[in-house]
Amino acid sequence: MHRRNSAFTLIELLIVIAVIALLIGILLPALGAARKTARAAVCLNSQRQSAVGMHTYAGDHKEIAIPSYNMSDFTGASACDGWAPILDRGGYVQAGEQTKASPFYCPETIDLEGLATGQTGKDPLLPKGWMDWPNMRTGSRNSPVLIPERNFNKIIRVSYWINADNPIGSQVSTIDPDTFFTGSVGYGPAVDGRFIKPTRFAAFRFPSSLIATADGVYAGRQRDNKVGTENSRIGYRHAGAGGGAANVAFADGHASVIAARDFPRGFNNGTNFAAVREENSYGKPTVYADPDATAEIVKKRAGL
Questions:
Q1: Which of 82, 143, 223, 286 is the 20 to 30 Å CA partner of 298?
Q2: What domain range is 60 assigned to?
Q3: What tens digit of pLDDT does each residue of 236-259 get?
């Protein structure tokens, strides 16, 4: 008796290969989506961690919000420390030297220096990049710098925007205290002689709605928060309606996701006043410590 050798025929092999190729084609997109979801979750947790650190900082500093950075005049000619280095130096949230493996760096960050020339301009990728802190503005360029006399001895790579009063580079006519989550403490004097001082937690009317940090770079320019707006600093790195979504930490310490279409803008001298007022209305995420009070100030100044 002769045993018959069993083997795949050429047609059977081709069928197996086709099935394997089909399964790979189905699984790869799902695997990619799962990885993006995991990275978004890491980003969300990082911002939550920073928010907790900011609350601990406030508890140690008479209930004031951490500065976006400290400065000594309105030109930005001196070195500015930055909120992430302040948290790191104080042991509230620690990070390594210019590393991507950091609570201050979103895993979906595009590896671009977002504010190298001072603005993000019309490039939609720059708000999805990063910025190094501490930092000094030289002309129109932002450059990282150490401040050893104040114990800032390492550069920290940050890919989050902080909701701050940030008029650096020019002198403004007036300063309204406690407008946003925080501010560039020490900026001034404005034409009316005021300086930006630390923001009080007591000024937060709706802390669970007040945005503290978000995917993006640097600070300020709240009026330019929409996708496609020139010099926007919000980095919509994650999947969402209207051009993506940004992970956000709020003043009460929780973190969540805001779709691009729902991210609120700041007032721009009365332009689109009604639309911006609606975006910052009760129950919605807002960039203002007290949306109603700020709206009244803007309305009066614009003669509306």
A1: 82
A2: 30-302
A3: 999 998 899 999 999 999 999 999
